[in-house]
Amino acid sequence: xxxxxxxxxxxxxxxxxxxxxxxxxxxxxxxxxxxxxxxxxxxxxxxxxxxxxxxxxxxxxxxxxxxxxxxxxxxxxxxxxxxxxxxxxxxxxxxxxxxxxxxxxxxxxxxxxxxxxxxxxxxxxxxxxxxxxxxxxxxxxxxxxxxxxxxxxxxxxxxxxxxxxxxxxxxxxxxxxxxxxxxxxxxxxxxxxxxxxxxx
Length: 200
Description:
Blueprint: E1 3-4, E2 13-14, E3 19-28, H1 30-39, E4 43-44, H2 50-64, E5 72-77, E6 85-87, E7 110-114, E8 119-123, E9 129-136, E10 138-143, E11 146-149, H3 159-199
Transmembrane segments: 161-184
Pfam family, one: Lectin_C
Keywords: Disulfide bond, Membrane, Receptor, Transmembrane, Transmembrane helix
């Protein structure tokens, strides 16, 4: 079965393997970059073998070697277990290509790829830089003489990330509820004190 890159939106590149790639040269934070990839139907790129890294290296070196500004990939620290890194598309962490002495800081929550060595480094998520999107190739299924392309994977954030966001929202809601309750109680106490002072 033949696999190929989606025609829309334009810009996906086929280097072989299971994935197509898109190079975003706009300098964005890690979160903005991943959202841009999601809008294209993919996510920030995940890598699961040295071969996937090697086939992409010549193309990345053309774009980024001279500037030494390394692009984001879809690797980030687990929200509950910060010593662990996970892929944003939810695929397993079955391959590692960390540079020497990387990762080296728990404050650096996201990862980029050093194109000259195709190794990873952790970095501050809010620092703008270019990025690499990936999407699984789609297959062509012939039916009644017409080719129908299966929809691309639209994986978003991993389950852990979504659970973390939901937890944060619930926590903020709880804190706001406590503050509102406290303020309302304070208001009632002041009203009672005013009434008592008038009676006296």
